[in-house]
Amino acid sequence: MTGQKATKELENPQETAEQVGLAALIIQDFRGFLLSDYQFSWDRVFQSRGDTGVFLQYTHARLHSLEETFGCGYLNDFNTACLQEPQSVSILQHLLRFDEVLYRSSQDLQPRHIVSYLLTLSHLAAVAHRTLHIRNSPPEVAGARLHLFRAVRSVLANGMKLLGITPVCRM
Fold it and tell me: Using DSSP, how many helices (H) and how many strands (E) does the chain show?
């Protein structure tokens, strides 16, 4: 009997590492005011925990995996009334602010607004991922949750692309 691997092999680990590394660098640089002096630190850039580009990439990859795992079976069933949990409401309210954040960044030419928004979105998604289960939920609830996570991943990907980051689907 052969054992199954818990993790999948990456198609191109070098490319993924470069994309995650660039995300770490870009997020570190864009977190504050563009014209301010700050102390650059490689240690801060490559932290695996906290508000980093690595965290954004990890969140995107995790949500992509969720879609791959459950997408086919649940994407037809969608009833927004099933999204009553506080975690769902928080995410929906945050998603509604995306255009406001883009406008603000365009007005003062500071990408830090987008960075802050994406980091908060990733934190909200992480909490929701731990508490809003898709497996073993009624199909209507599972479908609504999957759509919610898909919306988060889409906004996260678009925000990252605006910052010059290529989102990864696996890490």
Answer: 7, 0
Say yes or no to pLDDT of 146 above 60.
Answer: yes
Cβ pair 53, 164 in contact under 8 A: no
Residue in the structure block whose two tokens are 């309210």: 93
pLDDT of residue 133: 94
DSSP reduced 3-state for 39: coil
**Cα–Cα nearest to 63, from 124, 4, 17, 115:** 124
52 backbone dihedrals φ, ψ, rounded to 5°: -135, 170
Q: Are 143 and 73 in contact (CB under 8 A)?
A: no
Residue 28 pLDDT: 85
pLDDT at 7: 54
Q: Is the sign of the CA dihedral 79, 80, 84, 90 positive or negative?
A: positive
